[in-house]
Write a structure and sequence with these properties.
This protein is an all-beta fold. The protein contains two helices and 33 strands. Strands 2, 28, 29, 30, 31 and 32 form a six-stranded antiparallel β-sheet that branches. A hairpin with a 3-residue loop joins strand 14 and strand 15. The protein starts with 30 loop residues before the first strand and ends with a strand. The N terminus is likely disordered.
Length: 486
Amino acid sequence: MTTTQQSSHPLSSFPDTPGFTNLNRPMRTELDVFELEWKGDLPEGISGGFYRCGPDPQFPPKAGDDIYVNGDGVVSMFRIADGHVDLKIRYVRTDKFQAERFARRALFGAYRNPYTDDPSVAGVDRTTANTSILRHAGRTFALKEDGLPHEIDPTTLETIGKFDFEGRLRSKTFTAHPKTDPVTGELVFFGYSAKGDELSTDIALCTASADGELTSEQWFLPPYGSMVHDWLVSAEHVIFPVMPLTTDPERLQAGGPRWLWDGARRTALGVLRRGAPAEEIRWFDGPPRWSFHTMNAVTRDNVVTLDLCVSHRAPFPDTEGEMFEPKDVKQYLTRWTCDLDGDNPQFTEERLWDDCSVDFPVIDSRYLGREYRHGFMAAQDPSKPLHPQLLGGLYFNSLAHFDHATGEAEVWYAGEDASVQEPAFVPRSPDAPEGDGYLLSVVDRVPFDHAELVILDTARFSAGPVATVTIPLFLRPTFHGIWVAD
């Protein structure tokens, strides 16, 4: 059946396009795998759950093709304890998922464009809860930035329901990248397009106490509306990167894409002291740049440094319909600096590491917002061989450790047939020094008939995994995950 059939009938198969083939082919699977095989030395100190969240469409797309990030939310959990590893995978039962499952076909159209939906689902919550996992105040949530958190049972992964702090949260959206203060346990988060309307530009800045009570919510307007996927929080400040990936009401209403790159705009960094009123935000200006994900922020004597993965533009077409050059969307570990005592309204920029393009940075979460030394990332090492089947998707062939004290990096290359997913850091013990522990990551292997969970010891990082868990099936790449210790 072709993709040109009437939208009132379901498509019989997924399209033969990059978003649905090779590394990106849908799994559409819920499962339990008991007692996974492993080899090597499974560290005794690792006991807990490695939770991951990502997109996996349950039906072929309504429009005939779609972008990868528009899939239904799937949560997976590796349970590791006492020398045993189990795997569980479940869909998040969002309103969108339930409506389409009842209809047995896709009803929602283009990514974050409700004007392309089937009329039968007008007004239905479109979020897919497909981006990241949050553990806070004894509860576990699946997150996506266009809707509210969906609470899930941390053992069964069954969906409990949407969460809005018992109706006290006014924002209809919740970032996929909230930050938990490692000293106070306070949760700091925001929502953009906070009215829940894709055309609104409002941002809601919020905090919740360590025991889960909403403690503040204040709204403000950025210099212009854009995607604000990740942000940064130091011990003293919150920082909002507003970058030129923008939307347009007329384009959306005509059925066009939610996001296009507008290179005529500048980057704006909004810096606000934590606890201060939103009207005190100070905006720093810089050249057009793009960053999906951040590593950490530190405030030193009223100078705020931001470490993040930066490219010259986002991997989206521009407002003139022109596509990007591959070199322009490669992201590199970069430092932006804002001097709050100075008169310069611009931030400065310094490239920290040139050898590999990188993304999905993680740190030892006990040092979030504080002085830190160690960062870990998924990396593309251009000097290594690459299997042709990996070219059609977002891939990384290595894991990297960057030492901010020395400016040096260690790299573990996973192999020509490997696609490495976002890592998670696990301290060796609760009182271990910063960065001393283990790095966990899922690795898919060409021809995508199986995957591995690799565990690296950060004390001998470049030596490769100390343990490798065999997963007897392909695992579609996720976005983000967390480690939750027992």
